[in-house]
Design brief:
By secondary structure, this protein is an alpha+beta fold. It has three helices and two strands, in the order ββααα.
Length: about 70
C-alpha cells in the first residue's frame, strides 16, 4: 500500500466531489460502510452533514475511520 493519497469521486447531495485519502483509509472506509450495510456515498454524506464547516471532508473521513476502528 502506498502512503500517497488516492483520489476517488463521491456523490454528495446529487453532486460529484473528489476526495483524496490514503489507500489504507479507503479500504477501512469501505469495510465500515459494508459492515453498516450502507453505500459508501451514503456514509460519506452522513459524515459530510455532521462535520464542522472548517474541517475538510477528507479529514472528517479519516477521523471517522480512526474513531470507528478505535472502539
Amino acid at each position: 500500500m502506498t502512503a500517497r493519497p488516492v483520489k476517488h469521486s463521491l456523490t454528495l447531495k446529487g453532486h460529484r466531489t473528489s476526495v483524496s485519502l490514503e489507500e489504507t483509509f479507503w479500504s477501512a472506509f469501505r469495510e465500515i460502510a459494508a459492515e453498516k450495510g450502507v453505500a459508501l456515498n451514503v456514509l460519506a454524506a452522513e459524515i459530510d452533514a455532521g462535520r464542522d464547516t472548517d474541517v475538510g471532508l477528507a479529514s472528517a473521513i479519516r477521523v471517522f475511520v480512526f474513531q470507528t476502528l478505535r472502539r
